[in-house]
Automatic annotation (TrEMBL):
Amino acids binding NADP(+): R37
Primary location recorded for the protein, binned into one broad class: cytoplasm
Protein family according to the UniProt entry: Belongs to the DapB family.
GO biological process: diaminopimelate biosynthetic process; lysine biosynthetic process via diaminopimelate
Positions of the Dihydrodipicolinate reductase C-terminal domain: 131-267
Key word Cytoplasm present: yes
Function: Catalyzes the conversion of 4-hydroxy-tetrahydrodipicolinate (HTPA) to tetrahydrodipicolinate.
Official protein name in the record: 4-hydroxy-tetrahydrodipicolinate reductase
Catalytic EC class: oxidoreductase
Residues forming the catalytic site: H158, K162
Gene3D superfamilies referenced in this protein's UniProt entry, alphabetically: Dihydrodipicolinate Reductase, domain 2, NAD(P)-binding Rossmann-like Domain
Length: 270
């Protein structure tokens, strides 16, 4: 069987380089293209060299449209507006589009879903790791079993370069907690606290964000009751967990109909 041919967009980024490495290491897939923004200093450079590997004979370009002519799909960990622009291309060409980008507004998310349904086979998740997706299932079970006497608080820490908050993972875990409790996340979320906030509202879901250093990604969901506290935590130690998850999603998507899927679909956890 021929390899699944994948283009990495945002090739120069932290995740772009981890993706080139993960695709190169895995059987059944290959790097078919590497795309960066027009004018980026890495345009023309070899994708393998960019990722710190042996040369792959794939030069970085700024033209996703052309790169996709000889590829099956795209893996995209970039920025919300870039992912939206790329999705119009993947949908027009009926390709696989795996999106790890976070920080979409609810309106942008709805737009992305509509574009996917018009032609792409899209998998999008705020976290592509097996561990976080399994954790979200455990959180759903825990919040289903415990009533609102247990306060739900979600704490996350990431590296100093991260530009969106709360993280995509924190929101994903918040959705799982809300789902377990049978409530709407957005109606019950408290995204930050400052000053005379008043006492905590029963049934709300609180978020707290820390940023610093090189932390790859750490998330805790705390269920705080009277006299006891449960903490469910995931700590990412290497970006390869996200990259391997994204490659798995692309392989899974290969024979799936056009549509908008999540990592829970890929992992059979839905
Ligand atoms: N779902 C998951 O499992 C994970 C998600 N993420 C998410 O992935 C995204 C990227 O993270 P990270 O790699 O750390 O960020 P980086 O800033 O290191 O990388 C993003 C890359 O995308 C490029 N880019 C942005 N806009 C465009 C464009 N229009 N055309 C081409 N390239 C573009 C950037 O180029 P430039 O620098 O020129 O802007 C940069 O090279 C974030 O949203 C992050 O939250 C990260 C890890 C795991
Ligand atoms: O920006 C990052 O680095 C990460 N972003 C994702 C998120 O927003 O949750 C996933 C991971 O935690 C790393």
């Amino acid at each position: 069987m021929t390899d699944l041919r994948l283009v990495v967009v945002g090739a120069q980024g932290r995740m772009g380089r981890a993706l080139i490495t993960a695709i190169s290491e895995q059987q059944g897939v290959c790097v078919a293209g590497a795309v960066e923004r027009e004018g980026a200093e890495c345009i023309g450079m070899d994708a393998g060299t960019l990722a710190g590997l042996q040369p792959l004979d794939i030069p970085v370009t700024s033209d996703l449209d052309a790169a996709l002519d000889t590829a099956d799909g795209v893996i995209d960990f970039t920025a919300p507006q870039a992912s939206l622009a790329f999705s119009r291309i993947t949908a027009a060409k009926s390709k696989i589009h795996i999106i790890g980008t976070t920080g979409f507004t609810p309106e942008e998310e709805a737009e992305l879903k509509g574009i996917a349904e018009s032609g792409a086979t899209m998998v999008r998740s705020g976290n592509m790791s097996l561990g976080v997706n399994l954790l979200s299932k455990l959180i759903e079970q825990a919040t289903k079993a415990l009533d609102a006497d247990f306060d739900i608080e979600i704490l996350e820490m990431h590296h100093k370069h991260k530009v969106d908050a709360p993280s995509g993972t924190a929101l994903l875990l918040g959705e799982a907690a809300a789902q377990g409790r049978g409530i709407d996340l957005h109606a019950n979320a408290v995204m930050s606290r400052e000053g005379m906030t008043g006492a905590r509202e029963r049934g709300s879901i609180g978020f707290a964000t820390l940023r610093g250093g090189s932390v790859i990604g750490e998330h805790s969901v705390i269920l705080a009751g009277e006299g006891e506290r449960i903490e469910l935590t995931h700590k990412a130690q290497d970006r390869s967990i996200f990259a391997r998850g994204a490659v798995k999603a692309a392989s899974w998507a290969k024979d799936k109909p056009v549509g908008y899927y999540s990592m829970m679909d890929v992992l059979g956890l839905n």
